Amino acid sequence: MTTARVSAARVIERVEKERAFASAVLEAELSRHVQLSARDRALATELVYGSLRVLPWLTSELGRFAPRGVSDLDACVRAHLVVAAYQLLFTRVPPFAAVSEAVSAVRAARGPRLASFANAVLRKVATRAREMGEHDRASAIFASAPPWLSAALEGALTAEGSRAFLASGIEPPAVALRVEAAQDRDAWIERLRAVAPDARIEPGSVSPLAILARGAGKPQRLPGWTEGAWSIQDEGSQLAALAVGAQAGEQVLDACAGRGNKTGLLARAVGPSGAVDVCDSIPAKLDRLREELGRLRLGARASFAVDWRAGSGEVTGLYDRILVDAPCSGVGTLRRRPEIGLRREQVDLAEMARGQMEITSRVAAHLRPGGSLVYVVCSVLREEGEDVLAAVLRAHPLLEPAPFDVPEVRALAQDAPTFRLLPHVHGTDGYFVARLRSRAPRL
């Protein structure tokens, strides 16, 4: 029988063996087992994300109680040990339940000999769990991050901030929804609470369009999705799109649109009297974008397959406002993509920053005098934030930093031309957002 713990172990096994994205594997696993209750789905999600965030430490800890370690152990058995150890060391799940179900699952999958081995190891882990304090757990989270990531986070957020950032991802985030109009948010909260009374459904804290849902099941099955009343979008991503400040009648360019999460918000803001053009280097993403805009009964004026590092392609116009949601390391999404923390190899942040600078510089050539450009990365690292911004300003003397002109954003950024969103402070994914304005050339 498939349970939340068995499903979690299957996901861990595939992430380790195939270097797959945890979110995609988990969604596929839960889709195959529709009999799981909302509570079991929430438990499976917590076990997957929590286990992956401390996987290196858990593997090391398990190895202390196995004569030959666990690195060369059968992947299925190791995954069940990891999920059980996470429960024992980091949750309040009764030890008997965690150990018993893991041993039963190993017995069913690999036979009694390995089940006996699993039982012996997990009983020792249970003893270790009784000795651990909160400081030990916090240290385990920090020790699980690869050195390159710890160093980069400390450089951007200080030592204390980096530890808080890493610790924030141990609990899976809520599903964030974006309503199409702020005045409709309260009504949708009440409607969703009525159909999912056991779920936690609350307003967001930084975006006036955000609803945060926990334990409500698959969002696409909730009322409002089919009719395009709301979209699935992280609250920080919503605020980043709002920071563009798009107004009715304006011409806007979404230069790295991806699948169009931010595009829909921009298209709604400019209305029928304005226009949004979209670009991405991957044509398939533009196809998905058009589908998503269609669900919302919106559209883009034009779409361009553009690799901005190579040139502007067919983009020739000038725009009132531009959004550059640049490709990045994705460090800010660590709580949703815990596999990022499993990359032991150094990420080439210098090369990443060069690409971000090249893209932003080339896109800036399409900014109308007096217009504004918002640069966004789902990263909190200086190398992809302030350092890129400084390089762009050196390359474009007519660009200048400018305060944001959106009330919700100014409430957070004040008069500064940049801000960071942090999961441990704002409850969102991590973002760096900056606004630049184009001065008219002197005659």
**What CATH architecture of the largest domain do you see?**
3-Layer(aba) Sandwich
Compute the number of structural domains.
Answer: 3
* Beta-strand content: 5-15%
Task: Specify the CATH class of the largest domain.
Answer: Alpha Beta
The CATH homologous superfamily of the largest domain is called Vaccinia Virus protein VP39
Which descriptors would you attach to this protein?
globular; four-stranded antiparallel β-sheet; 49% helix; eight-stranded mixed β-sheet; N-utilizing Substance Protein B Homolog, Chain A; Alpha-Beta Plaits; alpha/beta; 443 residues; Rossmann fold
Notes on the structure:
The protein is α/β, with parallel strands linked by helices and 443 residues long. The chain has 3 domains: 4-144, Orthogonal Bundle (N-utilizing Substance Protein B Homolog, Chain A), CATH 1.10.940; 175-232, Alpha-Beta Plaits (2-Layer Sandwich); 235-438, Rossmann fold (3-Layer(aba) Sandwich). Helices cover 49% and strands 14% of the residues. The strands form 2 sheets. Strands 5, 6, 7, 8, 9, 10, 11 and 12 form an 8-stranded mixed beta sheet that branches. Strand 2 (200-203) and strand 3 (210-214) form a beta hairpin. Helix 5 runs antiparallel to helix 6 and helix 11 (235-242) packs parallel to helix 12 (261-270). The longest helix has 21 residues, at 147-167. The chain is globular. It starts with a helix and ends in a 5-residue tail after the last strand. The model has no long low-confidence stretch (mean pLDDT 92).
